[in-house]
Amino acid sequence: MGAGTGGHGHRGGYSAAFNLGRGRSLISTGSMSLHSSSSSSNENNPSSIIDSLSSIFQNNDVSSNELNDDCLLALSRCPHPVADIALKAYVKQKIRRETNGMDKISDPSKYIIAVLRNTMAASTTPLPPTMRLNSTKKNGQEHGIFEEDSDLVHMKPLSPKKRILASKYVTGKTQTTQVPANHNSGGQQSRGTHDVHERKGVLTANSEQVTMDYVDKCLSCITKLERPIIQLSGVGPKTEAAFHSLGIFTLRDVLWHFPRYFIDRSHIRKSVQNVVDGDVGTFLLFVGEPKYNTVTCTDEAGNEVDVTYFYGRSRQGMVAASAAIRKLCNGDSDSMIVSGKITNTEAGRWMLFNPDVVISPDKADSLGIEAVYSLASGLSQQKVSTAVKEALVVACELLKLLPESLPDDLLAKLHWPKLADAFALSHKPTSMEGTGLNSPVRQRIAFEELSLQQTRLGLSRWNLKHFGVTHDLQLKNPHSSWKDSPLVIAAVSALPFNLTSYQEKCLDELWNDAIVGNDGKMLRLLQGDVGSGKTVLAYLLGLGCVEAFQGGRQIVALMCPTQLLASQHVQTISEYACRLQRASGWNIRVELLTGNVVGKSRENVLARLEATNDKSIFFLVGTHALATPDIVSRLMQLSSGLALAVVDEEQRFGVRQRLALTKCAAHSLFMSATPIPRSISLKRSALVDFTVLESDSRSVATTIVSSDMIESVLSVLGSKIQEGSKCFWVVPRIVRSGANDEGDGDSVTRPNIIERYSMLKKKFGEERICHVHGKMAEHEREEQIARFSDPSSEAAVLVGTTVIEVGIDIPDTNILIVEDADRFGLSQLHQLRGRIGRAGSRPDLKCNCILLSNVTAAKQNPASLTRLQILQKTNKGEEIADADFYLRGPGDMLGELQSGIKKGRVVDLENHWDLLDAATQFGRSFISSPTENLRGAPAKEDASDTIVSWIAERNATKFHVNANAASKQGFSLRIMMALFAERKNFEVDCIEVINTLQNMAASKGEQTHNDKTIHAKIVEAFSNDRNDVQSLNPIMLDDLGTQRGSEVPVRPLKPNLAALNTQLSVEKRLNLIDEDVMFVVLDCETTGLDDKTCHIIQLAAKILGSDDENDLFSEYILPPIDRIPPQIEEMTGITDEFLRNGGFDLTLGKERGTARDFRQVYLDLQIFCKERANGRSIVFIAHNAKFDVRMINGELRRWRFSDGRSPMLGETFTCYIDTLQLFRNGKWWRAKHRREPALPRPSSFSLSELHSHVFSESITNSHNAAGDVKALERLLLSRPFIGWKTTANEIQVPFVRVDI
Fold first, then answer.
1. Radius of gyration (Cα) for the chain, nearest Å?
2. Cβ–Cβ < 8 Å for 919, 446
3. Could you give the CA distance from residue 458 to residue 926 in angstroms, rounded to a whole number?
4. pTM of the predicted model as reported, rounded to 2 decimal places
5. Which of 103, 263, 424, 1072 has the fewest CB neighbours in a 10 Å radius?
6. What is the pLDDT of residues 1026-1077, one digit of tens each?
């Protein structure tokens, strides 16, 4: 049924027709009050309504007198479970407010109606006729009995899980999913949710339909696998806690707990000399006489073997040893089969110490291959094996019910077992050949997991392209080519240069995707070398998008990683726009929005955005500020929204930052010369489309030179300068680093700006040398760059940090020298090299890149030397990005890990990469969008090629060709999603995927009533009674103020946690010495010492050991008080005026804008940490850390009280280390076991006193959080505290994580 008919608007179902009230009269005009109505209709009779709701009122302890007539009528018209949800929410909120001393709910009726409205919005089921009896017409359109009122506060929408549950109740366990309108350029009305027909006969002939009995059997198996581990026989609270420490919470988790290794006890060796010393072997031994706790035996080759038992000197240990010796010696025969670890002692004798197995020879057949599992304290191999057996019984029962995804002939060709057999053999193999990661058993499971991952990626692509901001857009004036667009042709003509043939070809491709194509939202990665002209293509495409929408969307956003690059883009686009405005009637504006544009200036920019009119185009250029929550929120609300979002140098942004901006736009374009490995993964998996911009840039000769040859380099550079050359000289640091990165205490002087600038001035003269770095004031930096770029200037060398990586365009520069080049990434080095040989450079000067490196150290780290050799071999960004992809790993395509290897349940991409091509084609077989073949590493086996050939031979008749819920293939796909889903990502891995499957089927009009019913059953099974929330380890319960032995905390320690629907879990302790963790030094400045009444005014963090200026986070916070106390201003130097109006920050040496709200700063801190962690655990280091934790928790608590939910420290940090406690350890102040006299113990352990005591100098910028974190970092990395990680390992305090 079309929009506007039958009481349904575009939103459809309850969400439009059942607009639950916002305070106006909910009964049609002319109706009487509910309590005074004389209508004979029983449904509006007050007594009958109250009677029908009496049980719900009684269960929730709510009186009908608390609610008005409209609310009672609304509750009576809802299904009882939904009414019960609304009343429970009201009671919970009421109790929370009373408990925390907050204001009472002013209007309970409005609150309940708002909850009902949000709950009903979860469903798209058409409104039953009985619900439309009192509908009225207003302005010619039909409305439901409930209307909206603007004075009702906006309610936070339900979480996805609650919406699923609510939808189940509303629709009577039958759910119809909402479908986006198809994006078409013809202006025809798109098919929406209510135009979906239940078609019969659309299923292919090979699509067998499932029965309800079959569905129930499969879902029953899934339910059994989701049983908590404590429900298994022999598992109590302590054993449960041990399983939890291994990440095992349910029977399904046990299934994926594969053995660490296997022991083959079935092979009986004739001689102990045939076994490597320290390995496990099985032997037939002739038993001798026992002596004490040892029995001297002889193997079949005549070698003497001492079998020794020792279980401790206690009585129990001695009894156990005696029993074991009797078992060995008192057998029916003079020989026994013994299996255990064989060792050769210093005396040259062979010994079996506490052997694992001792049996008589007639039981030799019972020996086999034994699995060895990872254990935790309180677990034994027997307990884990018992749990695995139970899990395998249920899993094999389920897998035998489901159809095999690969046919028997293909499995036979690959020598792969069926999936059920593969799981059984992975835990109990029949031979040692089947135990490796590349064994047929593991390959079979890995292929299934990879294909399901690719299915998720394909569905994610479909969801991104067909759901979101573009579903309500119509292109009003789409031109078939950019050459037909008057605006774009005028823009091209106005450019100060001609487009190359490569650029024209790329523009054709971009235009076809964004303007001509009808496949939804554009998601495209544009890869082109530095200086190839990517920016002008983004500019022209932005013009075309705005023109096509004709007033619908008039803004193009361009996000850059640095202010320098953003300013350059503003200048470039402004120049283009100025030329175009003179040649066309369009009004084109270019605005800059960075972190320095704050207060009224920022509001003015946003106001101008909102004031755009027809024939206007707005280019909004900015830095990370465009991705902050407040700006994203404003952009989402704009009536003239984003036509195109462009992310330049996308490798410099985090996953969340890119998504934050692109979700606001109709189309998205990512640009980079060397995309991050994750982006390459997305390209190769066809989640984003891909365009390569080729160029004819000059070749740069790259040479690797040892650092000790710097004098020779300087000599050559001097002669080149005399010939007219200019040089960029890049060093990794601004100031000297006191110790090397390994922390061994040796005083190693690394290259730095200050010393190198001084040396070059002495060598070539001050007039020849310029320098720039991130800590310089902006005007100073611009002055230095201007002097270097001035052709009339004598300046020939610009010394700088990686601040010159992007945004510097000085064509005359033809030499690049990078010191410590092995410490840079491939992408960074290629970007730096792109600063030379640019368009307009002198053709008579050869371009040279010299990579200075400590070659000896680089050889010890093959990866760093490989990076330099790759740069030496090629100048092409695409080849360098691919090499970076293989060196660093593909990252997590469905998560936030930007590089590295993201392993699955069984997938190990280092071993299973060759299967990815076939898995991609197989997993995407039912999705219409084309996939691009992977160019993976050379295949180790023919498995991938065999499967691909099979797919081609069967003419794409693949397993999941029909993904409807009622087909056996589609139902099996949903069940497999649940079986393979990771626990922590179950919502994304499973529930969201099956909802997308349903949406996709509905968009094609291929849903039947059976599909909807089965889909609702699956959602119900996957949403109810899940055990995702971890309970507390019983050992820790006393520490958190709970009763020992209780599974769930009786009362949380902190009262602010009582309002949360949460459970607590304590993070495990880290091994700070061996594990790869990231240390963050953190400090905050506050208005006082009380976390209840005082506030944080500055938050600073620094990545420990990093010299990159971008690894320092420092933000000021405007507290919600009238004025900063004078004593705090005096002590910290942070004045009230500075926070409110901004000013020059002496600590960082730059201008700062108005201080921001704590929430914005804390979210930025989370992003700062997680982006740099790359999946590692993050450890929070602070001096007197308990105070910092307490103050931050105080701010988070206030946030939680106002919004109902806030982040938790445990979501970002795994544990914290208090350096106050660390430095008080007496071992630092003792001379024993040290090569040099120890420092005397200080009289005070305050940070300033400690710093003065160790370094004999005061802290620079003391009592400023940024100054303090640098001082603390310097202390930790100094010689007196070598080995501090060992002490930190003992005093670390894990954070309590709250799982909501």
1. 35
2. no
3. 9
4. 0.55
5. 103
6. 443 332 232 232 332 333 333 333 323 233 333 333 333 444 578 887 778 8
